[in-house]
């Protein structure tokens, strides 16, 4: 694999993770189920709740993954949205908006947002830790149910999880998945897994543009199958084993060290801010913008320099001061030379913008 060909991006390559140790505390999870994706975990949990409680409205944050929004709107006709500033860590959910017969999906926003869930008569709460798996908020959550898309953090083709926190008090059980009995010939998730798994293998040995195009095409095909499959399909035993092997690996230690390193080298900017949690480690290098044109200019500059950020998320239009976010991955794949390159590239753009602003003021 040559980074001069594949660049620096969000798609994992196939990697031996046996040398990475597990976290010490894995007892925060009570009842739990594994899935092919986080969206299936949300759907399963909602149906578990509906078996025991009548729900008036299902509330999602306005700033949320557009694909999950659309996916849930196709499934449930009681979806509503609440406002929350994801880029202001002091802004909290206004729980007075909801009735005790509502269901609220809260997000810990890249591992840095803390949701203080009220006691007493309140709605059922599902907390989404898709971009904060094993973060402080994840392991200390007291929500009724939690979910996460595991493949955002773990180097696996697909994976999601739903669980009840051990410290939670909700009496509604998380029911086990029923085996639908789909055979391999008609199971789209088996095909999706294989496409993405092969793409990861190709990326691991990629040395030229043809191979790069091949792994991107395979990955895209696997993603399309996932996005278009509404049915919850139980995991194949070997796929579950792959997920469990990586489930509690301490990948976040690398993120903490890499973020600490890169923050020391970044130049201050007047056009963006870096989102950093208080005593919490974020999903990656989170860079928020107020202005769409500057955001897209920065994104294109990174791509031109073979840094492929993730937009988290597109198709969200909110009224807050900061509106757009890019995440640059800083995980176990990258060494100090990689981090220096990423930092140098960002600083180059920052200095260019500073020069442009100075020229306009003259």
Category by helix and strand content:
alpha/beta
Largest sheet: 7 strands, mixed
Shape: globular
Helix-strand topology string: HEHEHEEEHEEHHHHEEHEEH
Number of helices: 10
Q: Quick one: how many beta strands?
A: 11
Question: What features would you describe in this structure?
Answer:
The protein is α/β, with parallel strands linked by helices and 362 residues long. 35% of the residues lie in helices and 14% in strands. It is built from 10 helices and 11 strands. It has helices at 3-6, 38-50, 66-75, 136-139, 188-204, 209-227, 237-246, 252-263, 292-304, 336-361, and strands spanning 29-35, 58-61, 79-82, 103-107, 124-128, 145-149, 160-165, 272-274, 285-289, 310-311, 324-328. The strands form 2 sheets. It has a 7-stranded mixed β-sheet. It has a 4-stranded antiparallel β-sheet with strand order 8-9-11-10, with helices on one face. Helix 5 (188-204) runs antiparallel to helix 6 (209-227) and helix 8 crosses helix 10. The longest helix is centred in the last third of the chain and has 26 residues, at 336-361. The chain is globular and about 60 Å long. The mean pLDDT is 91.
